[in-house]
Amino acid sequence: MAEDARDALQALLRSGQAARAVLADIRRLAERTGPVRLMEVCGTHTMAIRRAGIPSLLPPGVELLSGPGCPVCVTPNEVVDRAVALARSPGVCLATFGDMLRVPGSSTSLAEARAAGAEVEVVYSPLDALRLAAERTDRAVVFAGVGFETTAPTVAAALKTARARRVPNFAVLAAHKLVPPALEALLARPDLRVDGFLMPGHVSVVIGSDAYRPLVARHALPCVVAGFEPVDVLLAVRMLLAQRAEGRAAVEVEYRAVVRPGGNPHARALLDEVFRPVDSAWRGLGVIPGSGLELADDYRGLDAVARFPVEPEPTREHPGCRCGEVLVGALRPPDCALFGRACTPARPVGPCMVSSEGTCAAYHRFGG
Amino acid sequence: MCLAIPMRLLEVQGELGKVELGGVLREVSLVMLPEARVGDHVLVHAGFAIEALSEAQAAETLALLGEVMAAGEAGGGDGGGGDGGHG
Question: What domains lie within chain B, and their CATH numbers?
Answer without folding.
Answer: 5-74 (2.30.30.140)
